[in-house]
Amino acid sequence: MDAETTPAPRKPWKNLGVRFASALILFLICVAPFYFGGWLWAAFVVLFSARMSYEWVRMSDKNPTRIAYLFPVLAMAIGGIYAVQGLWVYAGLTVIIAAILGLADRMRRGGGLWAGLGLLYILIPGLTIIGLRGNAVGFDTAGFQTLLYIILIVVAADVGAYFGGSYFQGPKLSPKLSPNKTWSGFFSGLIFAIIIGGIVTNFEFSSFWHGVLMGIPVVLLSVAGDLLESGLKRKLQVKDTGDLIPGHGGLLDRFDSLMMAAVGFTLIIWLFPAAWPL
């Protein structure tokens, strides 16, 4: 076989070192706010949401104004103040009013739907994550343990999909939305994530199998969030939402799965409180 027909060697875990280093730094940045919760965590989430809003405006608005950048940040800050105090009616009204005003501002320049969608897409998960963590300080608090469970499930699903999909490859999961995701990656991520979920709940409050069963919808929601963001990027014809995190892209690229999982998990335990006794 000559040089022209020799296939290039496959690199199953490309950029592994860069991805790991970026994830480690991100973890270290999050530790203190996550531990203390309350106002510190709310400020942290607002800051991250502000960056995600910036990424959204930049990729969805060809001629953004200062208002387009500042308005989502202001709305998230006000909503965060209400959320950390448990004033969810006011937080919800903030989201609705922000989406309407954002849509109205953008309609003057065209594409108003993208502004309204972006505000809902970022504000609702951000406020949900503030609410899930709560105000109590410490590792043994319900908010810490609940949000930790969701985060570990999402991270485990991502890690399992990365290693399993890169190694086994095979049929694509959804080639029209995300050409790099495979069924092998999906099942690898699912298996690894529910095992981690079982271990977490076994230590926290319940049995191993409770964590496994609750982990399944969290994984499905995280995959849905990832595919949704991939579809939005394809629609807007961008590869990544940003380049803030080496090996990962922007914050929206990194947290899309967590955003959907957090909102979906909150809805599940709101409808079925007995499913999560914390």
UniProtKB/TrEMBL annotation:
One of its GO terms (cellular component) is plasma membrane. The keyword Transmembrane helix applies. It comes from the Bacteria. It is an enzyme of class 2 (transferase). It is a multi-pass membrane protein. The chain crosses the membrane at residues 20-47, 88-104, 111-132, 144-163, 183-201, 207-228, 258-276. It catalyses: a 1,2-diacyl-sn-glycero-3-phosphate + CTP + H(+) = a CDP-1,2-diacyl-sn-glycerol + diphosphate. Its main location: membrane. Pfam families: CTP_transf_1. Pathway: Phospholipid metabolism; CDP-diacylglycerol biosynthesis; CDP-diacylglycerol from sn-glycerol 3-phosphate: step 3/3; Lipid metabolism. GO terms for molecular function: phosphatidate cytidylyltransferase activity. Keywords: Cell membrane, Lipid biosynthesis, Lipid metabolism, Membrane, Nucleotidyltransferase, Phospholipid biosynthesis, Phospholipid metabolism, Transferase, Transmembrane, Transmembrane helix. One of its GO terms (biological process) is CDP-diacylglycerol biosynthetic process. Its EC number is 2.7.7.41. It is found in: Cell membrane. Belongs to the CDS family. This is Phosphatidate cytidylyltransferase. It comes from Litorimonas taeanensis.
